[in-house]
Give the backbone structure.
Amino acid sequence: MGSPLAVEPAPCHLRSWADSVGAVIPVSAPPRVAAHLRSVGDASAAVLHHGPDAVYVDVAGRCVGVVGTRATAVPCALRTTLGRLPDVVRASVRSGVLHLDETPLVVGRMVDVAVPRLGARRCGELDELGRRWSPDVAALVGRGDGLTPYGDDVLCGWLAVHRAAGVATPEVDAAVRGLAHTTTLLSATLLDCAMHGEVIPEFAAWLAGLGTPDEEPLAARLARVGHTSGRGLLEGARRALVELERVAA
């Protein structure tokens, strides 16, 4: 769809959703998601997955989600205040605004998805670690079931902790990007998010709570995310923390 389409009445299955807010759904957006939608202007958006809690669409080769209050607020998703999302037949972007069927999702505010920074460390030694130790990317990317395979979740946790520590990982980043086509689009997008230091709220809360009495309850909360996603994130993050602590000691 190379040009804006005329707005038609919302389909019956969306009217109850849209009518309550004047046929416009207000959403909050991570800054890079909002910027991506603006950059494509007008585009088709294939529906990759839809359910009562989350919808994922392909917008110019990047997965953009729409999540309700019961879904994990992934850093590539627009967030609504809805307890249940409607069935979605098609999606499109018009003038930088994502539409589910004919209902526009208008960004009302930005939401911070940045990973919290870890405390002061010996940066020179950490940078050296980033150059000489890395996970086996080829053995992890796309390994596992579901929309976000377990191996990808492990990598996301590892990458996010390095960003929190201010450690660049250029070789790992390049390897991940080179293999991104071998996993799902959602997972590839989340790997890109992790490389940019963007994480889910449960991960951010756990990392911020390291070393406090809340650490274990926050880890348990993170572990419950998804079928295995939270556990994968924890595994990758803890692997990274062990290495970082060993070198910083």
